[in-house]
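EI: anyone free to look at a 246-residue chain?
SC: sure, send it
EI:
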Amino acid sequence: MTSDIEGKVVAITGASSGIGEATTLLLAGLGARVVLAARRSDRIEALAARIAGAGGEAVAVVTDVKRRADLSRLVATARDRYGRLDVLVSNAGISPISALDDLRVEDWEAMVDVNVKGVLYGIAEALPVFREQGSGHFVHTLSTAGLSIVPTMSVYAGTKNAVRAISEGLRQEAGETLRVTTVSPGFTRTELAGSITDPDARSAIEDGMDKIAMPPEAIARAIAFAIEQPAGVDVGEIVVRPTAQS
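SC: here you go
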């Protein structure tokens, strides 16, 4: 089966590092036209230049997913530059995990703003475009933390399971021409631990990453697998774990 990725216009949030960066590079290498979204302008501009230098097509859009206007600009840029948007990969996320007793309410609010509202803003901006086109694909990055709830991760898991529920409702409402995929990574070598404000929780996550974490390219390949399926085939949910992860 030949890949159905070449020529597709794919916007990716959280594209400046980790899973987002790996996905951007993989899809661009397969011929997709990629729209890079992240807050760090220097990182995404350098990545876009790297892709262009290799003969690919890429544009960088500074984006804070907590701001709906930024998601609107992201989608508009894709349409202005390439005439359409085929896939929105909502990958941006943070994980300032901690025990509930610590009452890190600002961290809770930040996770809701980025992990849940950021995805909803993407849906709000891309769904009308997909309806108008008669095709489109939402890909939402979740986490295995939402499949196995453990101490310190309850709020983070809650945000991921909120998006899981939203994604399933979206899938059921999407009709015959739109697709919705959720991807739940296990331990993956990313910068996600950098958002953890609790030093003990951060140390535990970094230790797990050092011991068993997968490269982000493993998740990028899973995302590419879902995107490359022919029209009418919807890969609903993918779970990717290190073999050593319980």
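EI: The chain has a mean pLDDT of 93.
SC: 👍
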